Amino acid sequence: MYEQYVVKDREKLQQIEKALLASYFTNYDADFLHTETGRADIEANVSGRYNNALKYVVPWVANQIDLQGKTLAEVGCGTGASTAAFAHFVKEIVGYDIDDQAVSGARARLEVMGFTNVQLHLVSPEELVTSLRKNHAGGVDIILLFAVLEHQTIEERHETIRLCWELLNPDGLLVVTETPNLLHYTDLHTSQLPFLHLLPSELYARYADRSPREGFGASFSAGKSLSFKELDTSIMRWGRGVSYHDFELAMGRDYDQYLVADGFENEMLQWFEVSFEEELLRQFFLVRKLQVPLAFSRVVLNVIFKKNETLAPCKSRVPNNKYVGEMYTISEQEIYINTLENRLKAAEQQLNEMLSSRRWRLGNYLAGPYRKVKSLLSRS
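RESULT FIELD:
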């Protein structure tokens, strides 16, 4: 069903690329765009992200709601890749972004593709909440946050999640996808370094030049002259990550009761295979018995919340003993056995220490006659 909407017309793809080069990519270094990395970035914006949204995200969302006749608001629409993918199926989309070049590129893409059911709004970060509240006062069926929350400050992020949840119609969906998980060891999204995203902002900025990502470290060369707020905002705009803490604080302690898709669905597993780091974090959740949905053990967060108070919590579909390359998950039974084995080893060590103790041997020698008399009495 979705394959028929993949853009294969070379002329149309060239028109989209030309439009993006004249808008979104105008702030890029011209030499960079001719590198292998630069060409890959262009390809991703022209068709890669659109095809991923069409192949994985649209059917994933369609499993939870009939898209026909629905209204959709997309916060952080960027160059319109995911916007165009959903525009084939819903009644109306309203997109918002803070980047004027990105919005210009999105408008050009939608014009090339012939969509008439999409409105786009260029807003400042400060205007986003006001615009959402004004334009969707009557409610909306789906709100899409596609790779956007990680680029907001904490205050903006919580305000966005809270308002989006408020604006949803009954049975409406809040869709968060391709969002890096702050809890993982490696920042695959931005710096491509382990642990950097977990560090305090000043330390983050000082260490940023170790990143293999071209141009990333140089953007923090003026870090010493920035205030803490300016530095922290700069890091957030690059993309730092999101965790379950954000959703709990923005939606309330029962946020998990509304979770209907957790990133372990077939569409998401085809897009993002389970990794070694995810297995480690998932085992930590299980061993520590944390009351946190396994959705937040994934490197990339792909979650859907449904505004329905009668729903049962989403039960993760990730199977035990699922092989991931050469790694496999440990079942709860294996964890219990390992725990018992560790206790047995500790007891054996304690016993050996007792047997080798001079005090224990002396006490055992002195108690010998008493044990012998007791044994004789028990026989009579």
